[in-house]
Each structure stands twice: as structure tokens, then as C-alpha cells.
Amino acid sequence: MQESTSPETYELLRTSVREFVSKEVMPLASGIDKQDEFPVDVFRKMGRLGFLGITIPEEYGGSGMDYVAQAIIEEELGYASASLALSYGAHSNLCLDNLYRNGSGYIRDNYVPKLASGEWIGSLCLTEPGSGSDALAMKTTATTVGDRFVMAGSKTLITNAPYSDLFLTYAKTGESHTAFVVLGNDSGVSRGAKFDKMGMRGSPTGEVFFDSVELPENRIVGEYGKGKDIILGGLNSERVILSFIFIGLARRALELSLKYATERKQSGKFLYQFEMIQEKLAYMYTRYETSKLLADKALSALAADPMNSLSAAATILHVAESAEYIAREAIQIHGGIGYVRGSEVERLLRDAILGQIGAGTTEIRKHLVSLALVKNYKSNNRIPD
Ligand SMILES: Cc1cc2nc3c(=O)[nH]c(=O)nc-3n(C[C@H](O)[C@H](O)[C@H](O)COP(=O)(O)OP(=O)(O)OC[C@H]3O[C@@H](n4cnc5c(N)ncnc54)[C@H](O)[C@@H]3O)c2cc1C
Question: Does the pTM of the predicted model rise above 0.90?
Fold first, then answer.
């Protein structure tokens, strides 16, 4: 478990991330979306400021903080640019944090500092063309040949892939799964074109191909054959941390709605004076607040038990549905102008939709929540606290 950090330190971090976001990210956010351009310089600057390696100990080039700190960064980035927050999450949580937690001394020494500083960009490669929700049905293999492994297959929908120097990649090794470090410049690694997405534009998503990529044994992450545990543990932390992107996004949508409802007049009244608009604002706020409460509880649950899939899945289920609802209502409050390309609320809704797809879909989350509830009920006859 990571060392605990004082409340004052978290507040200082939030203040410095907010300052960074308002100076460096807010002015670019609309352009990042319109041009679908990853702000690589801003990303590297986040490395120099210690944000990328926030959960990594200082001896490996990180800031020595924890998931609460990572959640703060996600929330503040998500408020300004959900797409930058998604790329941040893929690099700092899915790739780097997973790599540090499970990696050998060799991996920690050779790769972790480069990712923590932002010199390198990282991705996590799980999804394949034939296996998304059923991720363990992957077809990518790593076969033992002498003292090496030879990887063959492909991955798709990988965040940061067009820019990544390091791919934390899962492959079938016989009947089991193993995680490997694959480098962007390893012979046999290539990438497809960047996907042109409806939302999260500027967070580059792409394919990666492995054509007989030779990997020495020191590229194994964790134990050989134990990749499934890394996948499942990593998914819990991913679900909790990525929830904060959508909490930040929801805060922005509610704020823009309040601004518009208090400035715009129709029939001689401000919009907020209409009861139907008041109802919207009340439900938007309630869903935003319940999202925050649930996500804060999930952070504590994650620190206590990284394999707690009930809390992680239930949290992102509620947070993502709420963010989409809040962004949709924000457009309704803005009326026609909210529907126009380039209005901020329009971007927020397109970005919010990813919340129900990435990190396991809404349907898979419902499945996980109900399975965990039934299992718990059968053994304890009660609902977990
Ligand atoms: C912008 C973006 C970034 C991404 N980044 C990454 C990344 O960095 N790394 C990575 O590995 N992956 C990444 N993904 C992939 C993402 O994790 C998958 O898209 C997601 O897990 C769903 O898989 P799928 O798209 O193959 O859909 P499918 O699994 O084919 O699902 C299609 C539909 O069927 C439903 N469905 C499937 N199985 C069941 C079931 N058992 N019960 C009920 N309904 C079911 C789904 O909920 C969904 O509605 C990213 C995706 C996007 C869009």
C-alpha cells in the first residue's frame, strides 16, 4: 500500500494542478478537439511538473504520492479537457502505475523513470479486434523460443498508441496470460492510422501490430502466466481513477449551465426562474454530488483492497451515466446554441459518451456489480458496507 499523504498536501496539489490547467489547458481545449491534435508539449510539461509519475516513488523519478493525488489530477484535467485527461490516465495509471507495481527491478530501473518524466509516452494494450469485453479471449501470443519470447498478433483502440514509446502488452502464453513490456522501436512493432473519433478528440487512439517481435525474459511484467491478476487488479484502479475525468467534466457542464441559466432571459425571465430548468439543475447537481461521494468511497476501498471489483465497477457505472446525463441536460439548457459545433457543452457530451465504453462498458459493469452482490449475499447474507 502507498504511504498516506496529508490533506494539506492534497490541497496544495489541487491548487497547482488548477493553476496549470487554467493557464496551459483551458485555452487549448477547444482547439485540441477541433484539430484532433494531441498536445504533446503540454503532456511532457506535465511530466516535468511531476504529474505523470504522481504515484511513483521519488527514487524512480516520481512524486511519491497515491491514487487520491492521481484522482485530483484527473478531475482537474477532466474539467478542462477530458481527452487530455484520458491520455493522462492511459499513460500514468494504466501503463506506468501498473508497470511500477508489477515490474521487476530491471523494469523499474530502465523504464519507469522515463515514463514518469514524460521523456517517454506509454500505453496499455489489452483490447484486440476480436476481443473487447471478453478481453481474456485475446489472440495475441507470446511463444517461448530458446531464451526469448516471440510475440505475434495485434491490439486495437489503444490510447496514445500513435505516440507511445512503451506498450504494456498482454499476450496468451499457452493457456495463461502474461504481461510484457514492448517498445515502440522493437523490431516487428508497427502502428496503424489514428482513429477519427466522435469524442475524446486529441487523445490519439490507434492500432498496434506485433509481427514476430522478439522479447527477452526481462520484459516480462510480474510473473510468467500471472497476467490475468494484473489485468483484473489494473482494471479496478483504472475504473476508479478514470471516474474522476467524468466528475471533472460533469462539474464543467453544471457550471456552464448555471452561467447560461442566470444570464439568458426568455419571456422576461431568467432561465433559472422556470421550474423545469430548476428541476434540471437540481438533478444535475444531485447526480454530480453522488458521483463524487461514490468515487471518494471507491478510492478508500481501492487502497484497502485493490481487487475490490464491486466498488470500482459500481462507481464508474454511476459516474459515467451521470456525466452523460449532466452533459445532455447542459445542452438542453443551452437550447439551439448548445447544439452548435464548437459550443463547449457539445464537446462535453461527445466526450462523456466514452465514459460508458472505455474501462469496460456499462453492460459489463452491471454484470460485475450484480455478480459481486450475489456472491457476497450467498456467503454473508447481506449487502457489503
Ligand atoms: C477512445 C477509446 C480508448 C480506448 N483505450 C484503450 C486502451 O488504452 N487500451 C485498451 O486495451 N483498450 C482501449 N479501448 C478499448 C475499450 O476498452 C473497449 O472498446 C471496450 O472494452 C469494449 O470492447 P469492444 O469495443 O470490443 O466492444 P464489445 O465487447 O464488442 O461490445 C459491444 C457491445 O456488446 C456489449 N456486450 C459485450 N459483452 C457483453 C456481455 N457479456 N453482456 C452484456 N453485454 C455485452 C457491450 O457492452 C457493448 O455494448 C479504448 C476504447 C475507446 C473507444
Answer: yes
